[in-house]
Input
Amino acid sequence: MAEEILKLKKEIERLKKAVKKQRYGLVWMDVPEAFEDDVENKLPVLKEVPKFAINNKDDKPTHILIEGDNYHALTCLNYTHKGKIDVIYIDPPYNTGSDGFRYKDRRILDKYPDGTEVPKDHPFRHSYWLSFMGKRLELAKDILKESGAIFISIDDNEFAQLKLLCDEIFNPFNFVNIIVWKKTNSPKAQANQLGNQYEFILVYAKNIEKLFLNKFVGEIDEKYKKSFVHNDNNGKGFYQTVAIIAGGTQRSETRKSFEFHGVIEQWLYKKETLEMWWKKNRIYKTKNGQYRFKKYLNETNGRMLSDIWIDDEIKALQGGSKEYIGFTTQKPLSLIKRTLKLSLNKNAIVLDFFAGSGTIGEAVMILNKEDDGRRQFILVTNNDEVINGKKHKIMRDVCYPRIKKVVKLNKSGVKFYKTAFIGKHNILNATDHDKIELAHNAGELLAITENTLDLVKQNKFYQLFEDGNKEKYTAVYFREELDKFDEFTEMIKKLKKQTTIYIFSWGDEEFFDDLADIDQIKVKTIPLPILEIYKQIYNLSTE
Output
């Protein structure tokens, strides 16, 4: 009875929030999503499939493949990578009625999809898609860094709905731009319609005030070079001047003014950036009192990008592409590479949770080879996908073989994980037995959290993982019984390396005197912190 009252109170609070929401926005029937019966009331974890592991040839990053439904994978990543992801690129189903988008309606209604494809004329077509995307984008937002960004490919079928959905999740203030790219040179001729040659990429920041984009990518063309007309004859070469104060249509009520060296203005750049330029004598004052910035040609690694990508560098697709090593892709590698180049961080962690054939993984490794980067990718896809009406074992038969070929060329490493489910109850009703089982099966989650992916020792009481360079370790004592704890402690002392230790505890904070005198260690507990993350996600999905 008490549980029913609690549920009713929660529903009342949800309805109160809904009433208070702004009147302008996206409204749809949020349809609950059903999963397979054996995972509905269990706790998700990640388990390695060792036979698919590819070892590093040197100290390059080890990349991660995850096979399973992306909702469950994102749940796990909310523990392992909360606030850690630099770039998310996704190419979700466009909901065209024939692109394989499926949805399992949790409501017991015979007329509605039970995991089959959603037809274009279905009355809940858009509601299913928005319900599907909304919960996944909510999870994606939480694993982005404050300085991170998400790039979402889309076409006109769900473009309007996606823009409003992203405004709601990421905040309109964090909208960056809409990139338009040319997908084909031969638009289809349809009666009463204009031919469509273009698709879109929506770009949102986690926190736009902390986002820095590399807006200079691609080859420098001659026309752009001619805009560098000034020269101080100081050995730095030709430069052009760039406005740093908002003017004309750039001025708005939403842009914040602040003081910089005695001048209060709507500056176009962050104060830290302006201070850096000021110290390097890159900001100067014109005769009419305007402040501008000197940008030198020899410091420019490409042309200034606009939001229209229709140049020759982006190769339009004609029924798929076979760029680089012969795999057919739905997005050209050239498009993905340019998108990834927008991030200035060559050590970025890049996530694609609609990985499909693995184009993002290939693009990351090509970029790493071109600029000596150390980007790490995480690719998530299931192993049962419909492409052009045919079923494929998409992870094992398409994505993994493709990544395996490219990894050999780049001498990188790969770890392959699969979503698994433990316990007998959902997070709100987890018993002590469920918590113990979670602790016993959390090893890979913890290893991924610390980026120590290689299992080097395991018994019935503890596990030891190391990174590829054997410079960092993760030690996990997952049993409540302390029979082997002294042995565990002695093992850690002998490592004499940076080590994160996870110890089973019924609370969230506990101090172990046996570990107090060991240098270079950090002690954490399991399973409660994992359960707390899962509980937040469960509450989010039932709001």
